[in-house]
Amino acid sequence: MSYLSLYRRWRPGTFEEVLGQGHVTQTLVGAIREDRLSHAYLFSGPRGTGKTSTARILAKALNCEKGVSATPCGECTQCREIAEGSSLDVLEMDAASHTSVDDVREIRERIPYASAGGGRKVYIIDEAHQLSNPAFNALLKMLEEPPPHVVFVLCTTEPHRLPATVVSRCQRFEFRRAGGDVLAEHLARVAVSEKTDADEAALALIVRHARGSFRDAMSLLDQAAGTAQGRVTREVVLEILGEAPEDVLLELAESISAEDILAVFGKVEELVGRGWDPRQLLVQLLEEFRALFLAQRGVTDTGEVDPEHAERRRSLAQKFTSAHLEWVLQALAEAQADMRLSTHPRLTLEVSLARASNLEVRETQTVVARLERLERTMLQGGGERAKNPAPSAPAASTPAAATNRPGDTPVPPRPPTSRAKESTPARAKEGPNVPKKKASPPAVASPVDGSLEEQWAVVLETVRSLSRVTHTHLREGWPVELTPDSLVVGFEKDFHATELMKRPDHIERITGVLEQVFGHKLRLDTEVRPGERPQAPVADIGSTPDDSPVDIVKKGLGAEVVEEVTRS
Question: What CATH number does the domain containing 74 carry?
Answer without folding.
Answer: 3.40.50.300
